[in-house]
Amino acid sequence: MTLRKILCDDHPVLRAKTQEVKKINRGVLRLIDDMIETMKEASGVGLAANQVGVSKQILVASDGGESVIELINPRCELAEGEEVGVEGCLSIPGRYGEVPRAETVTVRGHNREGYEVCLRAEGLLARVLQHEMDHLEGLLFTDKALRMVDPEELQSEEEI
């Protein structure tokens, strides 16, 4: 496995819609493994393939625990409720914003073996999945943020 460079800010690859994965081969599997290693090394909870310069519909996500979800060609089938939460992004270091997201999502895609999977997620994992699927569409959290949050504001809230 190899650590990949995470693209930052408005790099053109981050702003382009990604392409569907037609065939799961060794290159795709190696990319997924590299993405997991890169995400963990960066202390992130999600990473989309275009964040490491590969314009393919692949994401990895976690709810902050040890297990990692790998999805190829993910699609949101159902989004329920709405909540506003603070988000950051490995591609936009040091910036945070309040972003409205669905509370619960049902996502369908394929796993590394090529089998179709359907996942219902809520809370942090639902937010992470939506954030990463936005990346695959060329969207950043700053596009949807209701307002940007000063990092000092986050620290003062944690101290309460």
How many helices? The count is 4
Helix content: 25-40%
Strand order of the largest sheet: 1-2-3-6-7
User: Into which percentage range does the β-strand content fall?
Assistant: 25-35%
Total number of domains: 1
What CATH architecture would you give? Alpha-Beta Complex
Secondary-structure class:
alpha+beta
CATH topology name, in short, is: Peptide Deformylase
Q: Which sequence of SSEs, written as H and E, runs from N to C?
A: HEEEEEEEHHEH
Question: Got a strand count?
Answer: 8
Query: How does the overall form come out from the CA principal axes?
Result: globular
The CATH class: Alpha Beta
- Biggest pleated sheet: 5 strands, antiparallel
Rg from C-alpha positions?
A: 15 Å
**CATH homologous superfamily designation:** Peptide deformylase
Low-confidence stretches are: none
